[in-house]
């Protein structure tokens, strides 16, 4: 494996600690609407664009359940939880060091997030990173969400990057599968939600996905404990 010529970043759970925020919103909404919820189902939904999240919720709970109204309430709760944190989402360990390294080494990089651009901009502003990602591909700019590789292929095109020589950093299974499908090298950075609560009363989960670390790690080409480990790995490849 030679040096990578470019790097693509996911956002939620990868550069920001926003998956915990979002999962707390899911738990609040699940209790309010009478749906069961656990980290495995949530991890299965991570990385997907909006209409695909709704489709997966219908699959999980049944076509007769009003998951659309529930989903709208979840999105409102995400904002409420974030405001309780003074609008912050929190940067992941090693992010600033990795961005500085890529800039110093003149390695192009881009953000490829299923989140819509206005919310991406809010997160970036809240964490004082408004100018950190000059190239951004968001969920509204693609027809097919992860695990389809469309968003990564379009992000790579923004920086004229060859997928065969590009590292994609992801925390979700859908994202890892998308990177692999697009011919990129997938790098899994685990975002541990396993210690968070579950809602065990309410409409049951009809098809329980296997959302655990080892399943995702098995499909990823590379695996890192945090973004802090990526700098050393990239530098070793260059030497």
Strand order of the largest sheet: 3-2-1-4-5-6
Relative helix content? 40-55%
What shape does the CA trace take? Answer: globular
Chain-averaged pLDDT:
93
> Helix/strand-derived class?
alpha/beta
Task: Throw out a few tags for this protein.
single chain
Explain what this protein looks like in three dimensions.
The chain has 239 residues and is of the alpha/beta class. Helices cover 46% and strands 10% of the residues. The protein is built from ten helices and six strands; from the N terminus they run E-H-H-H-H-H-E-H-E-H-E-H-E-H-E-H. The protein has a six-stranded parallel sheet with strand order 3-2-1-4-5-6. Helix 1 crosses helix 4. The longest helix has 18 residues. It is globular, with a radius of gyration of 17 Å. The relative contact order is 0.22. The mean pLDDT is 93.
Q: What is this structure's SSE topology?
A:
Elements: E1 6-9, H1 18-33, H2 39-45, H3 50-61, H4 67-84, H5 95-104, E2 109-112, H6 117-126, E3 136-137, H7 150-158, E4 166-170, H8 173-181, E5 185-189, H9 213-219, E6 222-224, H10 228-238
Parallel strand pairs: 1-2, 1-4, 2-3, 4-5, 5-6
């Amino acid at each position: 494996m030679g040096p990578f010529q470019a790097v693509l970043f996911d956002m939620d759970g990868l550069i920001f600690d926003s998956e915990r925020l979002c999962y707390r919103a899911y738990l609040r909404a699940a209790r309010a609407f009478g749906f069961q919820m656990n980290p495995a189902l949530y991890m299965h939904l991570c990385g997907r664009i909006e209409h695909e999240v709704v489709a997966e919720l219908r699959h999980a709970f049944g076509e007769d359940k009003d998951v659309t109204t529930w989903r709208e309430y979840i999105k409102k709760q995400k904002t409420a939880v974030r405001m309780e944190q003074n609008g912050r989402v929190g940067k992941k360990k090693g992010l600033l060091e990795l961005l500085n390294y890529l800039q110093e080494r003149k390695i192009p990089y881009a953000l490829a997030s299923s989140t819509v651009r206005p919310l991406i901009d809010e997160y970036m502003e809240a964490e004082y990173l408004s100018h950190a990602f000059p190239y951004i591909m968001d969920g509204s700019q693609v027809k097919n969400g992860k695990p389809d590789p469309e968003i990564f292929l379009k992000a790579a095109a923004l920086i004229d990057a060859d997928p065969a020589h590009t590292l994609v950093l992801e925390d979700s299974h859908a994202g890892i599968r998308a990177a692999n499908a697009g011919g990129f090298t997938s790098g899994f950075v685990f975002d541990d939600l396993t210690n968070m609560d579950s809602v065990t009363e309410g409409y049951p989960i009809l098809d329980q996905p296997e959302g655990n670390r080892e399943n995702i790690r098995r499909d990823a080409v590379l695996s890192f404990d945090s973004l802090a480990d990526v700098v050393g790995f990239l530098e070793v490849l260059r030497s």
